[in-house]
Fold each of these.
Amino acid sequence: MKGSYAPMSVMKRVSLIFKSKANKALDRMEDPRETLDYSYQRQLEMLQKVRRGVADVATSRKRLELQMNQINQQSGKLEKQARDALGAGREDLAREALSRRQSAQGQLSDLQAQYAQLQGEEEKLTLASQRLQTKVDTFRTRKETIKATYTAAEAQTRINEAFSGISEEMGDVGMAIQRAEDKTAQMQARAGAIDELLASGALEDASGMPRDDIQAELDRMGAGGSIDLELERLKGELAGGEAPKEIGAADGAGAAAAEPPAAASATEPAEPAEPPKRDDGA
Amino acid sequence: MIIRILGEGQFRVDDATAAELQALDVDVESAVERNDQGALTAALGALLVRARQGTPLPPDSLEPSDVIIPYEDATIDEVRKLLTDEGLIPG
């Protein structure tokens, strides 16, 4: 049973597909030297492509990082709002803030999972890029040796060997790039959606209430509180009649009781002001 | 035998390991045939764990592999495409 499967095994068939790709590419070439140079060009292009891939994944990862920070801040703000609301005796508001905080935390752990995934992708692609670089270097050396040393018949065999080895690597790296690009594109679509969410305030607004209404309510309460205090103060002043007003006035002047000295001192500055004028005149 | 794990690189394994890998590969095959993604992921996982115990080929090697194992999180669809000429392999 096993024997009948083995020749058609998945891993064998995949390798045959890779080999057939390499052979087709080889067959297209007429001159072995052309094969070597053409393949080397393709390798350099692939190296550039994989490096771009690494950079793209890194950019996506950084964008996620930024979003995670934003959501973290939002979560901290909501916690503070919950505390403020509780301090003001508004348990309903505190509850609302905490429920939004929970939803922000949910988004955050979602992003953290994506972040880990992108990090893994970046790592894999970086390694792939290093592997390919080493192989391309080896290929270049071997290419020059083959060109310089061997007879045409020998060259063909050696070219085929080198070519199928590097071509397999190229196929692998090409797929890795494709996969990383697909993943990055998916993440970017999601990241775009989260940016929109953040911008619209929907993350602060788990309940469909107007944006940041918790803060508005807290502000209103704060403002209301200080207006009440103002009112109390004014009421107190009015209720106290004339006397409190005078006391207020006296307080305002600070040294109202010392009016005569103040008047005296008022004349004094006038005098020193004159000498400078004289100086100017002189 | 030289094996390549897609996205991870190449390893050299001895004959005993190669035989084990081939046995594990049967599960991959049948998971694909049965269209069973869970079984595929499990079978690939087992295959890869064993394959990674091989000796990594030096980075400057240009040797082609005898067999190629799909990446760990491959879907049924992706494995199927890997098995066709028009599949996932670029160029």
Amino acid sequence: MSAAPRVSFMVTCLGDMFYPEIGEKIVRLLRSLGVTVEFPAGQTCCGLPLFNSGYHADAAAVARRTVALFEGAGHVVVPSGSCAWMVKHEYPGLLSGAERTAAERLAGRTHELSQFLVKVLGRRKFRRAVDGRLTYHDSCHLLRGLRESESPRALLRELAGAEFVELPGGDECCGFGGSFSVRLPEVSSAILDKKLANVEATGVECVVACDAGCLMQMRGGLSRRGSRVRALHLAEVLAGGAGEPASAAAPRGGAA
Amino acid sequence: MSEVAPVTPLRERAGQALKDTFLQEALTIATTKFIGLRREAFDEFPEGEALRDQARAIKEATLQRLDHWLEMLIDSIERRGGHVHYATSAEDARRIVLDIAKRTDARMAVKSKSMATEEIHLNEALEAAGVTPVETDLGEYIIQLAHERPSHIIAPAIHKTKGQVAELFARELGRETPPDPEVLTRIARDELREKFLRADLGITGANFAVAETGTVVLVTNEGNGRMVTSLPRVHVAVMGVEKVVPSMTDLAVFLAILAKSATGQKLSVYTSLVNGPRRGGELEGPEEFHLVLLDNGRIRQIAGPLREALSCLRCGACLNVCPVYRQIGGHAYGYTYPGPIGILLTAMLNGPESVKDLAHASSLCGACADACPVRIDIPRMLVELRKEVDERRIAPWPERFVFGALGWLLQRPALYRLTAPLGRLFQRPFVRGGAIRRLPPFLGQWTRTRDLPPVAARTFQERWADLEREGRR
Amino acid sequence: MTRAEFLARIRGEMGKTRGLFEASPPTRPARPRERLDLLRRELSERWRENIDRFTREFERVGGVLHQVREAREVPEAIARIAGERQLTSVVAWDGDALGLDVAEPLAARGLTTSTAPGVEASAGEREQRRALAAAADLGVTGVDLAIAETGTLVVVSGAGRPRSASLLPACHVAVFGREALVESLLQAGLALEAWHEGAPPDWRGASINFITGPSRTADIELTLTRGVHGPKEVHAVFVEQGLAVARRV
């Protein structure tokens, strides 16, 4: 990788509407690592909610426009594992011909945030932006869809001064599942209760996740219980490289 | 349509299950234990991954020449003096078994655990025809006494506590017993031993049938499978057509992974290979052997969207890891087969209408696909079912309207961006302390149990101009 | 529905699809009997490590292993097992199938032993023998394959080798020599291929059972209990010098 890497940021619908501060943190974090961040205008959603509920014609239409939006982008960085999965795994199959080829190209350059930091930029060491002990919840699409469990852990373990503990049942679903959370809300909440009981049992101050859906679900439960535990996005616990020497900020090429 | 749809809606059944504290505890203990046992078994078994791939390939290869292998199976069985019957529907299968029972003057039938016979509701038909069916697998025996259906594919009475079983035995058998599994098991052994020795007819399912040799294979732990196939005069096995495997070499591959996936055992206690009726001067064995080949919706899936589900080994691994099954248990699904694979099988047997709600009884977390020994991509097929339900307009129209509107909106960025200021306007009365704790009833599904974040004062897109400027400094 | 109609339906559906992916079943051995003989010769070099492994796995699933050097020590081993448990009646496979005669030596030690007939019996006699087996305390059988990987005993039924001996009495004692040992399930698959190659001998029965420990269930609250319908105890007597089984599968 030669000059400053170019990233197009895919904010995601939940990220845009409900967690814009996370998006801001990601942009600043990437910039501190010497990355140029672009933001193609006109983004709406990756289409996963339509896809998961079986509305594939509409999902294909959304996929089509998203692929076009990100045509010519460098790396595409996505803050949610589920959206990254949708783009990488399902977009090509929804389209055909030249559009499918374009989707395959997009899939090849799309990364969830932790994957981008560790595997593309080769960066694992960051200062921490929060105090307290941390644990990590594997979001289903990142863990099983993208087969990614190591990159977020590498980042959290090497977080200077932070203590990381493994979450028992960390690979178990939080109960969000998109529309599932409102179609069978009692079941979704019961699953969430189990997750939060596990989190609280670790005694940590903070549970980290790489998916806005999981965060919405976990935060929703934690705040309803009046818990002192916070559910944070990975980007909220990594401090940017402001003030770091240039060599540390320059990304090493290739995968970590 | 093979099974009757449940009367109460899914959400209500699930709600009842969630309130049942006995069930909740039983489910947590049992599924957690099964998960651990399965993990240990595969941790110690490095060849396991390659064997799973092989098993998946064997199943697919067999389907690609299903007619050939079934013909070979039929010929092999007939050559050994067995009989093969063909059942297109559940009704056909019941009729075939009843005819055999009638012709052979059977009064009592002992049954080894068989989901296929559950699926066709055989027991009720036998009773109605004056043939007493006696379930002999301990879990099935328990639920038979309780007049219930199985709640798990391999551990049918998992939802019952030992106290409940003791009460049940006291009530149905007139035997006061302490809630001690050892004692309860011994009672069942004594009661059933007598039935094995007296029964006229033995009815089983089949885990596999080897085409090359005409061998029907039963995987059990208790010994009832051996009893049922050795002591009564007549043995009838009911088997889905997809269970055929080409050869003994293939069988060995499946045996190497089946018990490990189901219970973590290297092998179940008994793997019984049945080569037709008694022969060679042996003392035991049936005089007549019958195999009933069952379609009941399977054949249509050879070229259908649920084809992959035909590879299922009925091990139950997907149930144990499913976050939904672990919360609501098997009965809440409302049909014979529960859990992730159960939703697919229900659709297979009863059509997509039967799963219009069940297809959504999943967060699509993918744990099932990971656990499946033959790597069935269950989430993919659940989404396919959802799609079918939408396309056939089986989904309720308000839902289709909402998703249609969403699809429309997501293709129009300018209108999409308007939803933020609109959302901020409408949410104002509901935001307290930075969160939304209560929404009006029809929107309140989320907020009954969880808080909701408000639409941000400035969305990311609204902040981008500033962020961009910041970047240029 | 007839066979032809049923299969025609299947062919009809098959014709609509090429399937999900390219797949073929594993290659099968061309001459399994030959391969099995070859395997047996190889395995005879490794019998010591294989019996060690078998013992570990057998004990893991609740079996009890007894080791003797020669066939004539076997009746003593069986008598000891019976004596420890105050068992008095025995049903056994016949001498040709076991590779030794147990009836006399066991009778000499005070155990009532009934040996299965080596030929077809009348319905009446079969009924009687079944009752005998159901009432017996202990069943003695041979073993056609002992799988080290899983601690499994494979028994083939037939004349003189009744299924009931390993099923009805609460205590099952299986006797085998080093030649019965194989290492893995996949090797057992080879044996199964070999056993089904060509027509079976007249005395072969219709049942093959893989027995991995005593009968068990965990159906009540996942609590493990043993001796549900099948035997509560399974013992294996291993004869180092091997057994000359006359009627070998």
